[in-house]
Structure prediction request, 307 residues.
Amino acid sequence: MKKISRRDAAKLITYSSAYAILLPTLTSFKTDHILKRKIPSSGQLLPVVGLGTWQSFDIGNNIADRKQLSKVLLTMKKSGGQLIDSSPMYGSSEQVVGDLTTKLKLQDSFFYATKVWTTGKESGIKQMKTSMQKMNRNVMDLMQIHNLMDWKIHIKTLKDWKEKGLIKYWGITHYTDSSHEMLSRIIKTEKPDFVQFNYSINNRNAEHKLIATAANNMTAIIINRPYSGGSLFRKIKGKSIPEWSKEYDISSWGQFFLKYILSHEAINCVIPGTSKPHHALDNMMAGYGKLPDHNTREKMYLYFKSL
Prediction:
């Protein structure tokens, strides 16, 4: 079974038609479909690898950058990804997502998630309507409360919007360990459809309580900061993945880190951000092939810790 590294993928995209080559690469696995998991509150299936847009999509009207991000979106679509996560906090990202998916005629091919990031009911409503316009959505798949900002107010609006059909799901988010206790409490009392938080191989705080709390309350989990802001790659620079990890269809460090996360069955989707098509392809490949079991997860953690 032929595997592809980030470097090899970069060559394919640079020197050939990446999209003609992508499908044969994916079908080299035992299954040619990306792994999907059910959203607990509905049963809808969602691919386990998505795309974050913080920084990477905040490029305004830069023509060259937009062309490259179009390739990222095409790569994601071709390899089965769906969830695109954004926020008003991310500068021009929402507008760029809306413009590019519309131009590519892929506006109905993705699962769109964004956030409300302001205080006050009316300000929140105005911001969410603006976000939907920017992303070219009549109905938003997922609207989240960004970093729990004014969450008691926005939860009422989101529940109302879901009932009216303006959004399909609502959720809460944060990116720090110190927020995990509060996220757990809100999950227990308010039963959001989704929760988004930080989790990675070198930051396992969510394993203490938050992941189990979400699973026990039928709340889908989205993972942000899967590479710990890039610090994981800095640690392994110049080092090869362990030979035994290839038994789990891992052919790069990116896949090593993502499959560590995805091997936890309660996690629905991980959203690494990138502006590079070859990294997007490598990330998506983590959704294919065999996942590590519990014992291998610990082996992966101990190996990384020993580096």
Remarks:
- Residues 75 and 281 are 6 Å apart (CA to CA).
- Residues 1-30 have pLDDT under 50 and may be disordered.
- Strands lie at 36-38, 45-47, 51-52, 83-85, 111-116, 140-145, 167-173, 194-198, 220-224, 269-270.
